[in-house]
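Quick one: C-alpha coordinates for this chain, please?
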Amino acid sequence: AETKSLRDEAGTRGIELVVTDAQGQTAKQVSDVEDLIARRVDLILLAPREFEGLAPALQAAKRAKIPVVLIDRAAAGTVGEDYVTLLASNFIEQGQRAAEWLAKETNGTANIVELSGTPGSSVARDRAKGFRDGIAKYPGMKIVASQTGDFSRAMGQRVMQNVAQSLGKQITAVYAHNDEMALGAIQALKAAGRQPGTDVKIVSIDGQRAALEAI
Protein backbone atom coordinates (compact mmCIF):
# COMPACT_ATOMS: atom_id res chain seq x y z
CA ALA A 1 0.00 0.00 0.00
CA GLU A 2 2.87 2.33 0.85
CA THR A 3 4.58 1.64 -2.48
CA LYS A 4 1.33 2.17 -4.38
CA SER A 5 0.83 5.50 -2.62
CA LEU A 6 4.33 6.62 -3.65
CA ARG A 7 3.80 5.44 -7.23
CA ASP A 8 0.47 7.28 -7.47
CA GLU A 9 1.91 10.54 -6.17
CA ALA A 10 4.97 10.28 -8.41
CA GLY A 11 2.65 9.73 -11.37
CA THR A 12 0.58 12.85 -10.67
CA ARG A 13 3.79 14.91 -10.37
CA GLY A 14 5.50 13.51 -13.46
CA ILE A 15 8.34 12.04 -11.39
CA GLU A 16 10.06 8.82 -12.43
CA LEU A 17 10.00 6.46 -9.44
CA VAL A 18 12.43 3.53 -9.38
CA VAL A 19 11.34 0.85 -6.87
CA THR A 20 13.64 -1.80 -5.42
CA ASP A 21 12.79 -4.71 -3.12
CA ALA A 22 15.26 -5.83 -0.43
CA GLN A 23 13.39 -9.15 -0.08
CA GLY A 24 13.73 -9.04 3.69
CA GLN A 25 17.54 -8.67 3.65
CA THR A 26 19.35 -5.66 5.09
CA ALA A 27 22.50 -6.41 3.05
CA LYS A 28 20.45 -6.31 -0.16
CA GLN A 29 18.83 -3.04 0.92
CA VAL A 30 22.29 -1.49 1.34
CA SER A 31 23.28 -2.86 -2.07
CA ASP A 32 20.06 -1.48 -3.63
CA VAL A 33 20.81 2.00 -2.27
CA GLU A 34 24.37 1.84 -3.62
CA ASP A 35 22.96 0.86 -7.02
CA LEU A 36 20.57 3.83 -6.97
CA ILE A 37 23.46 6.13 -6.09
CA ALA A 38 25.41 4.76 -9.07
CA ARG A 39 22.40 5.60 -11.26
CA ARG A 40 22.58 9.19 -9.97
CA VAL A 41 18.99 9.44 -8.75
CA ASP A 42 17.89 12.81 -7.35
CA LEU A 43 16.31 11.56 -4.12
CA ILE A 44 16.11 8.29 -2.18
CA LEU A 45 12.99 7.35 -0.21
CA LEU A 46 14.03 4.58 2.15
CA ALA A 47 11.87 2.31 4.35
CA PRO A 48 14.62 0.75 6.52
CA ARG A 49 14.28 -2.98 7.12
CA GLU A 50 15.98 -2.61 10.49
CA PHE A 51 17.36 0.16 12.69
CA GLU A 52 21.03 -0.86 12.56
CA GLY A 53 23.01 -1.87 9.50
CA LEU A 54 22.08 0.90 7.05
CA ALA A 55 24.92 3.29 7.95
CA PRO A 56 26.99 2.31 4.85
CA ALA A 57 24.05 3.17 2.57
CA LEU A 58 23.34 6.48 4.31
CA GLN A 59 27.01 7.47 4.25
CA ALA A 60 27.33 6.58 0.56
CA ALA A 61 24.30 8.74 -0.28
CA LYS A 62 25.73 11.58 1.81
CA ARG A 63 29.06 11.43 -0.06
CA ALA A 64 27.16 11.50 -3.36
CA LYS A 65 25.09 14.47 -2.08
CA ILE A 66 21.83 12.58 -2.69
CA PRO A 67 19.21 13.40 -0.03
CA VAL A 68 17.58 10.46 1.79
CA VAL A 69 14.10 10.61 3.36
CA LEU A 70 13.26 7.74 5.73
CA ILE A 71 9.71 6.41 5.48
CA ASP A 72 7.74 4.42 8.06
CA ARG A 73 10.78 3.22 10.04
CA ALA A 74 13.79 4.88 11.63
CA ALA A 75 17.45 4.04 11.08
CA ALA A 76 20.55 4.76 13.15
CA GLY A 77 21.89 8.21 12.33
CA THR A 78 21.31 11.90 12.96
CA VAL A 79 18.41 13.72 11.34
CA GLY A 80 19.63 16.64 9.24
CA GLU A 81 23.05 15.04 8.87
CA ASP A 82 22.74 11.40 7.85
CA TYR A 83 19.26 11.79 6.35
CA VAL A 84 16.84 14.66 5.71
CA THR A 85 13.87 13.60 7.83
CA LEU A 86 11.70 10.69 8.96
CA LEU A 87 8.04 10.38 8.00
CA ALA A 88 6.45 7.88 10.37
CA SER A 89 3.74 7.20 12.92
CA ASN A 90 4.33 7.35 16.67
CA PHE A 91 4.93 3.64 17.24
CA ILE A 92 5.34 3.96 21.01
CA GLU A 93 1.94 5.62 21.27
CA GLN A 94 0.44 2.84 19.14
CA GLY A 95 1.72 0.26 21.63
CA GLN A 96 0.37 2.28 24.55
CA ARG A 97 -3.06 2.57 22.93
CA ALA A 98 -3.14 -1.18 22.26
CA ALA A 99 -2.34 -1.77 25.94
CA GLU A 100 -5.05 0.59 27.14
CA TRP A 101 -7.67 -1.05 24.93
CA LEU A 102 -6.68 -4.52 26.10
CA ALA A 103 -6.69 -3.47 29.75
CA LYS A 104 -10.22 -2.15 29.37
CA GLU A 105 -11.42 -5.30 27.57
CA THR A 106 -9.90 -7.67 30.14
CA ASN A 107 -10.55 -5.59 33.28
CA GLY A 108 -6.81 -5.36 33.79
CA THR A 109 -6.18 -9.10 34.05
CA ALA A 110 -4.67 -11.05 31.15
CA ASN A 111 -2.03 -13.61 30.20
CA ILE A 112 -0.72 -12.10 26.99
CA VAL A 113 1.14 -13.61 24.04
CA GLU A 114 3.09 -10.95 22.14
CA LEU A 115 3.81 -11.50 18.45
CA SER A 116 6.57 -9.01 17.72
CA GLY A 117 7.69 -7.62 14.38
CA THR A 118 10.97 -7.87 12.49
CA PRO A 119 13.82 -8.09 15.03
CA GLY A 120 15.95 -4.95 14.99
CA SER A 121 13.33 -2.74 13.33
CA SER A 122 12.42 0.55 15.01
CA VAL A 123 8.71 -0.18 14.67
CA ALA A 124 8.95 -3.53 16.51
CA ARG A 125 11.15 -2.02 19.21
CA ASP A 126 8.82 0.95 19.80
CA ARG A 127 5.55 -1.02 19.66
CA ALA A 128 7.00 -3.40 22.26
CA LYS A 129 8.12 -0.54 24.52
CA GLY A 130 4.83 1.35 24.25
CA PHE A 131 2.83 -1.76 25.11
CA ARG A 132 4.99 -2.56 28.14
CA ASP A 133 4.71 1.04 29.33
CA GLY A 134 0.93 0.75 28.94
CA ILE A 135 0.47 -2.47 30.93
CA ALA A 136 2.95 -1.49 33.66
CA LYS A 137 0.13 0.05 35.74
CA TYR A 138 -1.91 -3.17 35.62
CA PRO A 139 -0.31 -5.86 37.85
CA GLY A 140 -2.75 -8.46 36.52
CA MET A 141 -1.56 -8.06 32.92
CA LYS A 142 1.43 -10.26 32.14
CA ILE A 143 3.25 -11.15 28.93
CA VAL A 144 3.58 -14.95 29.22
CA ALA A 145 5.30 -15.41 25.83
CA SER A 146 6.92 -13.05 23.33
CA GLN A 147 8.19 -14.27 19.97
CA THR A 148 8.80 -12.69 16.60
CA GLY A 149 6.38 -13.36 13.77
CA ASP A 150 8.45 -11.10 11.48
CA PHE A 151 5.29 -9.12 10.50
CA SER A 152 4.18 -12.17 8.46
CA ARG A 153 0.76 -13.86 8.59
CA ALA A 154 2.21 -17.35 7.95
CA MET A 155 4.90 -16.97 10.60
CA GLY A 156 2.43 -15.41 13.06
CA GLN A 157 0.21 -18.46 12.60
CA ARG A 158 3.12 -20.87 13.05
CA VAL A 159 4.41 -19.16 16.20
CA MET A 160 0.91 -18.93 17.71
CA GLN A 161 0.31 -22.60 16.96
CA ASN A 162 3.45 -23.56 18.92
CA VAL A 163 2.68 -21.23 21.84
CA ALA A 164 -0.95 -22.43 21.99
CA GLN A 165 0.27 -26.02 22.20
CA SER A 166 2.62 -25.24 25.08
CA LEU A 167 0.48 -22.81 27.10
CA GLY A 168 -3.04 -23.92 26.17
CA LYS A 169 -5.84 -22.23 28.07
CA GLN A 170 -3.45 -20.06 30.06
CA ILE A 171 -3.52 -17.66 27.10
CA THR A 172 -6.26 -15.06 27.43
CA ALA A 173 -4.95 -12.31 25.14
CA VAL A 174 -2.77 -11.70 22.09
CA TYR A 175 -0.93 -8.49 21.21
CA ALA A 176 0.34 -8.56 17.64
CA HIS A 177 2.63 -5.83 16.30
CA ASN A 178 0.67 -5.85 13.05
CA ASP A 179 -2.60 -7.10 11.59
CA GLU A 180 -0.98 -9.75 9.40
CA MET A 181 0.35 -11.64 12.41
CA ALA A 182 -2.96 -11.17 14.24
CA LEU A 183 -4.83 -12.76 11.33
CA GLY A 184 -2.41 -15.69 11.42
CA ALA A 185 -2.87 -15.99 15.19
CA ILE A 186 -6.65 -16.12 14.77
CA GLN A 187 -6.33 -19.16 12.49
CA ALA A 188 -3.97 -20.89 14.92
CA LEU A 189 -6.27 -20.24 17.88
CA LYS A 190 -9.29 -21.60 16.01
CA ALA A 191 -7.33 -24.73 15.10
CA ALA A 192 -6.45 -25.14 18.79
CA GLY A 193 -10.12 -25.03 19.75
CA ARG A 194 -10.04 -21.52 21.21
CA GLN A 195 -12.54 -18.80 20.26
CA PRO A 196 -10.75 -15.60 19.19
CA GLY A 197 -12.47 -12.52 20.58
CA THR A 198 -14.20 -14.52 23.32
CA ASP A 199 -11.71 -16.92 24.94
CA VAL A 200 -8.78 -14.85 23.73
CA LYS A 201 -8.91 -11.07 23.23
CA ILE A 202 -6.80 -9.89 20.31
CA VAL A 203 -5.38 -6.44 19.64
CA SER A 204 -3.13 -5.47 16.75
CA ILE A 205 -1.92 -2.41 14.88
CA ASP A 206 -2.20 -1.09 11.29
CA GLY A 207 -5.86 -1.06 10.25
CA GLN A 208 -5.43 -2.98 7.01
CA ARG A 209 -8.52 -3.99 5.05
CA ALA A 210 -8.51 -7.71 5.96
CA ALA A 211 -8.25 -6.88 9.67
CA LEU A 212 -11.13 -4.41 9.50
CA GLU A 213 -13.22 -7.05 7.74
CA ALA A 214 -12.32 -9.56 10.49
CA ILE A 215 -13.52 -7.09 13.13
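The beta strands are 44-46, 68-71, 85-87, 110-116, 141-148, 173-176, 201-204.
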